[in-house]
């Protein structure tokens, strides 16, 4: 069950943002040629202006009410040497909890709470976003891992982060 659940959750979480990025505004799907700040697909009347940044760094525990993460932009065609910083505020008192028993007998508990985040990407120029979403924890075999996913109020920016100890990895997608 666990092997099936994780890919399904990941696919559902990424389906919306990737569909938005694939559309270039002219009702044609020209694919995502992602760069850090601007990627244009001039094959159609409507140009796609977007941002893609793969993030890797360190941070404080997302399990706290307030957490931070900083690090490097490690992918994004032209701007692979940029930096990021994220601040997350989570209201754990409003968390929803679900517990599952796997086929092998392991118990998995997932808690998700409303959260807000502020994200800054920089590499010569700066991009900032305020996001609303959820911070979630997954506890299995006594080990807890955390993640944050959120989007801007206008739906143009999406942020996905995974924290494991002090290591943070994730992606930020944006469409202008």
Largest sheet: 8 strands, antiparallel, barrel
Strand order of the largest sheet: 1-2-3-5-6-7-8-9
Counted by DSSP, the helix tally is: 1
The number of strands is 9
What assembly state would you assign to the polypeptide chains in this entry?
single chain
User: How many angstroms separate the termini?
Assistant: 39 Å
Secondary-structure element order, as H and E?
HEEEEEEEEE
Kindly name the structural category: mainly beta
Q: What is the residue-mean pLDDT, rounded to a whole number?
A: 77
Helix content: 10-25%
Overall shape: globular
Q: What's the Cα radius of gyration? A: 17 Å
Give the amount of beta strand, in percent: over 45%
Low-confidence stretches: 14-48
Descriptive report:
The protein is mostly beta strands and 176 residues long. The protein is built from 1 helix and 9 strands, in the order αβββββββββ. Strands 1-2-3-5-6-7-8-9 form an 8-stranded antiparallel β-barrel. Strand 6 (126-140) and strand 7 form a beta hairpin. The chain starts with a helix and ends with a strand.
């Amino acid at each position: 069950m666990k092997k099936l659940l994780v890919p399904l959750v990941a696919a559902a979480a990424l389906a919306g943002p990737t569909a938005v990025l694939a559309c270039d505004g002219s009702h044609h799907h020209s694919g995502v040629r992602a760069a850090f700040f601007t990627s244009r697909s001039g094959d159609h009347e409507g140009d796609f202006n977007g941002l893609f940044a793969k993030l890797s760094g360190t941070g404080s525990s997302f399990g706290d009410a307030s957490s931070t993460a900083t690090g490097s932009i490690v992918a994004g065609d032209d701007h692979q040497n940029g930096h990021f910083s994220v601040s997350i505020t989570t209201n754990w008192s409003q968390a929803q909890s679900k517990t599952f028993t796997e086929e092998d007998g392991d118990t998995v508990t997932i808690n998700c709470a409303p959260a807000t985040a502020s994200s800054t990407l920089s590499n010569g120029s700066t991009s900032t976003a305020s996001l609303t979403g959820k911070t979630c924890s997954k506890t299995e075999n006594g080990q807890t891992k955390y993640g944050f996913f959120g989007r801007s109020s206008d739906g143009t920016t999406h942020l996905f982060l995974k924290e494991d100890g002090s290591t943070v990895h994730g992606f930020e997608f944006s469409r202008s």
